[in-house]
Each structure stands twice: as structure tokens, then as C-alpha cells.
Amino acid sequence: MTNFLPRRIRAKAPPIKIQGIKTKLVPWIADAISWSGHGRWVEPFLGSGAVALNVAAPRALLCDTNEHIIRFYSAIQSGSLTPECARQYLEEEGERLSAVGEDHFYAIRERFNASKEPLDLLFLNRSCFNGIMRFNKKGAFNVPFCRKPERFRQALVTKICNQIAWARKSMHGKDWEFKCQPWRETLKEARPDDFVYLDPPYFGRHTDYYNQWTESEADELSHAIKALPSGFAYSMWKENKYRENSHLLEHFSDYAMETFSHFYHVGSSESLRGEMEEALIISPQNLVDESARLSPPDLSEDESDDKLEQQELFQI
Ligand SMILES: C[S@@+](CC[C@H](N)C(=O)[O-])C[C@H]1O[C@@H](n2cnc3c(N)ncnc32)[C@H](O)[C@@H]1O
Fold it and tell me: Which of 189, 236, 249, 253 falls between 20 and 30 A from 146, CA-CA?
């Protein structure tokens, strides 16, 4: 089988950020999977879109229960959100933020929670504390301001607009479908030629409205993954310095498991940041021949803007 996935992706960062974003793990993920590319690249847990946008398959089914994420990428796909309109919006709102300060952040937050405008999501996501997305029980965005009114300097605005342009290019002219739906619905749509990449929320971590994730849901997902008609790769944390994920051994001890250690930057408390061992469970028919594998990417050399930006936010 010819492998559609490029051997070494130089991963780019998506325009929106989320807890558990996989930008810097994309080269490792892509290098571990062999897939013909004939069907669709399916993601039931799209998140920031970092994996799908970098893989850039010709056909894709990209889903999440977070309606804001789906609305954001659907707007890029339909052309209602362009790099040009994002630039104008960020320059204007960025200027107001510098002049008014945090009250302006909270005014946009209120406006977003009423109108759900994708550009307001972008503004909040890129100027809130720790650059994350978190919603309360009523589904309202509730992350506080990062206390940096000068946040939207020209360089950052340009960087964000370039990320939107790149996202648009990754999906342009392709058969991509974005859907707001739970993972059970998405898995029902999987066909034999598809490849399903699954990156659910981490249980045992602090969660938000869109990231409620229990051990029983993780168990249910594991059974559903093993019954898929297609190939799959399932991302999960394996262990950190506090605990090991027994769920993986319980359900996937018969499967090949790739592991990778990295530093996790985004978290609401110190105990959620730090060294983390990631696991990737891959369906047997999609394993890359060991002799074709590249050496693991050196993340100490990683200059990806996610890492730099998150470090910058982390220091605030
Ligand atoms: C760890 S994140 C995915 C990160 C993504 N791979 C990235 O690189 O940005 C998990 C995602 O699952 C979504 N999610 C949570 N529960 C879900 C469910 N029951 N069905 C579908 N999506 C869900 C969340 O909204 C979140 O976007």
C-alpha cells in the first residue's frame, strides 16, 4: 500500500488553541501511521484542528461537540471568515483593548456569549489567560483576561492571519465536512477506507463544559474503536509523574503502542503542566514498517509558535 501520509511533516500551528493541542506531536503521529488516503481522514474530537490541517487529506469528516470550533472552521471553509477580515477585526479590537484595557476583553466575552461570533472567539482565545478555551456549565466562555492589553501587536495579528490563510489553504477545494456532533455519531459514519484519528479529552484532568470525560465514557469509546470498520489511531496520555493510565493496558494490551514523552505547557494548575508520556494506539493494518521509521522529532529544538506562544502566556 502506498502511504499517503508524508514521512516528516513540519507542523504548523492552527489559528485557535485548545487544551491538549497536538501541533508539536503531529510529526510523530504522522510518522507512525500508514494509510492509503483513499477514504476520509475522520476526527471525532477535532479540537484546534492541528492534526487534520497538517495532514491535509483530500477528503475529511471533522467533528466535535464544541459548536464554536465547528462554527469557526465552517466560516473559514465558506469564506465568511477570511485572513483579511480577521486582520481588520483584530487591528480594531486590539486597539480598543490597548486603550480601554481588560474591560474591553470582558465586553467582547459578553458579546461572544450572546452572539457566538467566530471572530470574537478568536479574539478571546488569543488574549485570555493561558490561551485556552474553557466554558462553564451554561456553555459560556469563562476564561479571564491575560492582563496584557498590548497583546495584539502587529506581529501577532500577522501571525494569526497567516494561520487562518494556512487553514483555508489546507481545506481549499477539498471534500471536507465539519459537523457538530458527539463521537458516537461520527464513528457510525466511518467506512472501511477511512482512517479515524481519535484524541478525546483526558480523564482525570480538570474539564470544562465541552470536555466532560469519564472513565466509563472512555471505556465505551475503547470498545467502539475496536469495532471500527476502518483503521484508527487513538491518542491518550500514558503516564505523568503522578499516575499511570490503567485504561490503556486494560483495553489495548494486544495492540501496538507508540509512546512519546513531552512537556505539557497548558494547564490550569502547576500539577497539570509538566512531563507527560503520550501513547498512540494504532490498528495493526496501519502500522509503519519499523525500517521506514524516522528518528523521533527533537522537541527540545522545537521552534513551533505554539510552544513559544504558550511559554509566553505561561509567564504572564
Ligand atoms: C483533547 S481535545 C482534541 C485536541 C486536538 N487533537 C488538537 O490537536 O487540538 C478533545 C476535543 O474533544 C471534544 N469533545 C469532548 N467530548 C466530546 C464528545 N462526547 N464528542 C465529541 N467531541 C467531544 C472537545 O470539545 C475537544 O475539542
Answer: 236
